[in-house]
Write a structure and sequence with these properties.
- This protein is an all-alpha fold.
- It is 44% helix and 0% strand.
- Helix 1 packs across helix 2.
- It is globular.
Length: 78
């Protein structure tokens, strides 16, 4: 296996992403959001509320940012 391994997405992750996308899309529509173009700075503030000690919010950022991108919050920054 190479330096970077891609893990299979779990059913729990797929469910979370679907629920998050539904909420994000609803908020985008409610606020008449226009997709932020590539190269424009976007300041994102996220509040985490975990029900267990030791949970790492950094583990959730990539997934959340991917969902936000797929919903049209901002353009792909690749």
């Amino acid at each position: 296996m190479g330096k970077y391994a891609r893990l299979a997405e779990t059913a729990k992750s797929k469910k979370w992403k679907a629920e998050a996308a539904k909420i994000i899309k609803n908020e985008l529509e409610k606020n008449n959001w226009k997709t932020v173009e590539r190269g424009i700075f976007l300041d994102i503030t996220i509040d985490y509320f975990f029900n267990k000690k030791g949970m790492d919010p950094n583990n959730y950022l990539k997934t959340l940012y991917d969902v936000m991108e797929s919903c049209g919050v901002y353009e792909n920054d690749d």
